Amino acid sequence: MGGRCVHLGANLSRGCVIGENLQCPFHEWQFAGDGRCVHIPASETIPDFARQTSFPVAVRGGHVFLFNRPQAPFEAPFFAGKDPGDLFPARAFTLDVGLRWDMVAANGFDLQHFRAAHDRTLLGEPTVEQMSPFARTLRATFSVSGHGIRDRLTRRVSGPQVAMSITVWCGTMSLVTAEFQRTTSYGMVCITPIDSARSRLTTIVWVPRSRSALGRALFDPLDAAVRRSFIMAFMKSDQHRAEGIRYTPGTLIAADAVLVDYFQWLESITGGESSLP
Asked: Cα(272)–Cα(96) distance, rounded to whole angstroms?
């Protein structure tokens, strides 16, 4: 729903939920999920104007996701072939980065940086698919080629190669599936602009749920916490080295073709709102 009550403009975020309705904090008007006013304590008649703008929402991992167009049907993006009940979410973590919002998700389509920043060597040719008008997916296989402790543990525990699927929705949400020989990790990265040069990344790491009640109670939280720490370290390795980078078409080379194609797609769906050069 809209942030201000249609009556006198009270801030609805300071209201409360009564049953299935949102109650205004000022005169206690109540609004249903579709925005209709359904109760006015001071009147038995509800005027036609008493309606808030409503938006479709979904809950994923304890977080509320909003689709910013007042239309339905709406299904929040999730990992391909998975239902939210199939996966267990770790506690979200945030990182502030010195990058514009439109540069953040572009890292997933920058194949050069995987080798330089993450010690991942591309195997074969990547593929790019258009999942919907607002979603683009890159699939690629990498060898885990680093010599640090985390990479050595990854090769031993998970396997020496990883098949990655990176789906970006409108440049503001990335869904990453990392499929190793012996396990699969899932990461959901939500990108919020702070200003014209900085962004905040909120990341939820997911792991497959155990089949047994004991596993769900004991193993899943531990598994999620360990993978969360690995993925946080993976992302932090980019935090400073990528600061201030920008898209400069005239300086790119043939190896950047996938990245250029991504930016052209992003500009086409934002109508230039990303202010790309």
From this structure: 24
Q: Report the amino acid identity of residue 178.
A: A
Express each pLDDT in 142-187 by its tens digit: 998 888 888 888 889 899 999 999 999 989 999 999 999 999 999 9
State the Cα–Cα distance between residues 184 and 181, nearest whole angstrom.
Answer: 8
For residues 25 and 10, the answer to whether their CB atoms sit within 8 Å is yes
Confidence of residue 208 (pLDDT cuts 50, 70, 90): very high
Please, what sign has the CA dihedral across residues 220, 223, 224, 225? positive
The three-point CA angle 76-78-80 to 5° equals 135
Round the CA-based radius of gyration of the chain to a whole number and report it.
22
**pTM (2 d.p.):** 0.79
Tokens at 100, concatenated = 């514009």
CA distance 265 to 257: 12
